[in-house]
C-alpha cells in the first residue's frame, strides 16, 4: 500500500548489522514499491530523512543506513520493537528492461537503492561495485550475479575506479563485436555518476542515475531538492541521460538547507558532517 | 482569455504560483511559468541566512497539507546567482520578502527592489516562525508601519500577503491599502494547526504547529477574499485551496483579480496551472462570461453602503 500522507509508525521487525558503518532495519509492512523509490523515515524528536528501499518483498521492506551523522547514528542504534515513522513510497524509480545487455554501477552506499533493481534485472548483467575500502562493500554475499569489486586502496578487487572496469567492458564488447549495453544504471557519489554518464554518453549508451538532494516534503511542493528545473523527490530521484543533459546543476550545484545554492563539493561536505 | 494586465505588467494568464512552493531557483520558476502559470513567486527572502526547521516540515493530510518549513532563506544578499539567472527572463516574477522588524523589511525590500523583480510581496503572515511574519499581519498599526515603510524604498508595485488569523482581515487589508500597498494577496496558510501521532505521542511536525493549506482551507480563503473585496479598491490575488477551474471561478466571484495555487501542485503536479487555466476558460465559455464579468460577482450589487465604492473600483 501507499502511505504517503501522515507517517505510519512501524516497529523495527529485524535488524541486520552488516559492518561498523552499515545497518539494515526491516519492517513487516506491505508497501508499494519500484526499485529506486524511497521513503521518509521519521525518528520523533530527532529528524526525518529520505531512505531508498534496499530490500523489498510483498510483506517486508528494509532500509540500509550508513551511520555517519546524528540521525543515521540514532537510526542504526534502534532495536527490534522500536518505532520509526514511515511515509512513502516517493519518487519515480528505475525503468527496468529485460535485456541481458545492461550494466549496474554502484558506489559505496549507492548499492542500497540498486540492490532491489539488480534482483529484477537479467542475471547476465555486468555488475560493478566500488568503495573506499573492503569494509565499505555493502551486501558482499547477497547476489547471484557476478560482481566486480573496485576499492580506492586496493584492499579488495581492482584498485581504482568503477569507470575503469566499465570502460574496459564497453571496449571489450565493441572489440569482440558483442552487443553493446542497452542501459547502464548507476548510483553513488554524484561525481562518480557523472563520470559514468559521460563515459556512456560518448558511446551513445543511455544511463539512469539516482540523485540525492536535501529533501523536506518528499512529494514535489517545497522546492528544497530542486536540481536545475527538476524536482528530485518527485520528478526523480532517477533521471536518464536525456534529462541529465538539460540539468546544468548535475555534478555542479546543490541547495543547502537554507536554499543557498552552493558548489556540489560544499554540499557534500555539509551532508557528511 | 487574453493576457491580463496586473499593476501595469502583462501576465499571460491570471494564475499565480504561491510563495513557498517550488520557488527555489530561476529554472524551476521558468518551468512553472511554461506549465501555465502567469505569475511565479520566489520563496520568501529574509534578512539573514536561515535554515528553517528540522523535518518533518511538510505533511500531506489528504484534505490539504500542514507545514512548518520555517522560512529558510540564503539571506537577501546571498542570492547573486539567482538574480543573475533571472535577469534575462521572459516571464514576470513576484519576490516575496520577510523580516523580523520594520527595519529588516526595509533593508531586504530596498535591496530586492534593485534586483529587478516585477513585484514585491511582503510576507506579513507566516505562522511558522516565532519572530517573523505573522505578528505584522494581525495588528493594524504594525501592518501599516511595515507596508508604508517598504512602499517608500521600492520602485516596483507592492503586494501585501495577509493571514486569515487576523481578527478582521478586511480592516488589515484597508490599512495596507492606505499605507500604499498596490494589491493584496490572501490568504497565507491558516491556523496554525497541529497533528499528533498517537503512537509516538508527539506532534508530527518538528515545530509542533504548522500552517494549513489546500482544499480544507478553501472556504476560509473565499470568505477572506470576499471580506477584503468589500474593504479595499485595490486588486486581490486570491489563493487558498484552489485546485480546479471551478475553485478559481469561486475565488474570482469572491473578488479576486488573480488566483494563486500552491498545494494543488501536490495533488495535480506542476501542470495544474495549464489544467486549471483550461478548466477556467471552458467554464467561462460555457457560461458566456469573461473573467471580468465574474470578478466580485458573488457580492450583492445593491446591498450595503459600500456598493458605490465598488463601482469606482480601480481597474487593476
How do the helices and strands line up, and which of them pair or pack?
The complex is a heterodimer of chains A (273) and B (316).
Chain A: E1 3-11, E2 14-17, E3 22-27, E4 38-43, E5 47-57, E6 60-66, H1 70-76, E7 83-90, E8 102-107, H2 111-118, E9 126-131, E10 147-151, E11 158-159, H3 162-175, E12 183-187, H4 190-203, E13 207-210, E14 226-227, E15 230-231, E16 238-240, H5 241-245, E17 253-255, E18 261-263, H6 264-271
Parallel strand pairs in A: 8-9, 8-12, 9-10, 10-11, 12-13
Antiparallel strand pairs in A: 1-7, 2-3, 3-6, 4-5, 4-7, 5-6, 13-16, 14-15, 17-18
Helix pairs in contact in A: 3-4
Chain B: E1 4-6, E2 9-11, E3 15-17, H1 26-34, E4 40-45, E5 58-60, E6 65-67, H2 80-87, E7 93-97, H3 102-113, E8 119-123, H4 134-137, H5 140-151, E9 158-162, H6 169-178, E10 183-186, E11 190-194, E12 196-197, E13 202-203, E14 209-213, H7 218-231, E15 236-239, H8 245-254, E16 258-261, H9 264-268, H10 272-286, H11 291-294, H12 307-311
Structure characterization notes:
The complex is a heterodimer of chains A (273) and B (316). Chain A contains six helices and 18 strands. In chain A, helix 3 (162-175) runs parallel beside helix 4. Chain A has helices spanning 70-76, 111-118, 162-175, 190-203, 241-245, 264-271; strands spanning 3-11, 14-17, 22-27, 38-43, 47-57, 60-66, 83-90, 102-107, 126-131, 147-151, 158-159, 183-187, 207-210, 226-227, 230-231, 238-240, 253-255, 261-263. Chain A is 21% helix and 34% strand. Chain A is α/β, with parallel strands linked by helices. In chain A, the strands form four sheets. Chain A has a seven-stranded antiparallel sheet. A seven-stranded mixed sheet of chain A has the order 11-10-9-8-12-13-16, sandwiched between helices. In chain A, strands 14-15 form a two-stranded antiparallel ribbon. With 316 residues, chain B is α/β, with parallel strands linked by helices. Chain B is built from twelve helices and 16 strands. Chain B has an eight-stranded parallel sheet with strand order 3-16-15-10-9-8-7-4. In chain B, strands 5-6-14-11 form a four-stranded antiparallel sheet, with no helix packed on it. A two-stranded antiparallel ribbon of chain B has the order 1-2. The longest helix of chain B is centred in the last third of the chain and has 15 residues, at 272-286. Chain B is globular and about 50 Å long. The two termini of chain B are 16 Å apart. Mean pLDDT of chain B is 93; it is low at 307-312. The interface between A and B is large, with 36 and 47 residues.
